Amino acid sequence: MVDAPVLTGRRARVQEARAPRHRSERAEPSFSGTFQALGELAYSGAQVSASAIDLDSDERIVSIDDRIVLPTASVGKILLLIEVSARLSEQAVPAIEVLAKTSKDAVGDSGLWRHLQARSLPLADVATLVGATSDNLATNVLLREVGLDAVRARTEDLGLLRTALLDLVRDTRGPDDAPQLSVGSTAELSWLFAALARGQVVDALTSSRVLGWLSLNTDLSMVASAFGVDPLSHRGVDHGLQLVNKTGTDVGVRSEAGILRGPRRGIAYAVSVQFSDRSIAARLRVLEALRVTGFDLLEYVH
């Protein structure tokens, strides 16, 4: 049963009017809400990690246990997209190369391709499905095409030591399988998104292509829920805001990394939480804390 007082309190906090503050009247954003919200989760037994980097100054604005390694679920798929994009830039594979789905690639949960009649799609379209809906079937097809070893080698070349895509997507994980789809540190993930924003991941074309795929992401349920942009259409600038993000969801895992640009400045961010997903109230507390983090990021850039 859902803890009614907890949910009632949450609704009241979310619906409470946030007093507008003019730029000339406010101090520099302190991210105090983020520290408090994530601190409360940590105090309740969750593992939390967060990092944020100013895109102009390269200053690390937020650092909360940002070097610990936590499960990041589908966030690690960005490493696969980087490898695919690099191969396209190197012309190692054509964007129109047709990839077919097979029974060995089949997996449930997120994505659209398993619901479509099309048996094959161009490689670039398969990558688009991963960026837009974190498509699990499309992920496995791409991994079969490029190989997990190549993704790992590319990850190491980028200098990432605590972040990795460990396995293909599986409906169930046995004792011989990697325990998680991916892991990462928020320090490395925020750096990675900052590098993508600057065109420094492999090269400018590779970085731009990855950001293009991720700009279609429809999951704005976590940090990005505070930004007020259209989940199905936010590739352009909306009220001065531009968002590119990747999320990861698993039992007891919520993770998000991205870039938010606003009228004042831009920021690269990453937040991961591993928690006991024992009730809907526990899950909502995590989502609320991520939303609070989003409000602080919004205040920083707007």
From TrEMBL:
It comes from the Bacteria. InterPro entries: Beta-lactam/transpept-like, Beta-lactam_cat, Beta-lactam_class-A. Residues 51-273 form the Beta-lactamase class A catalytic domain. This is Beta-lactamase class A catalytic domain-containing protein.
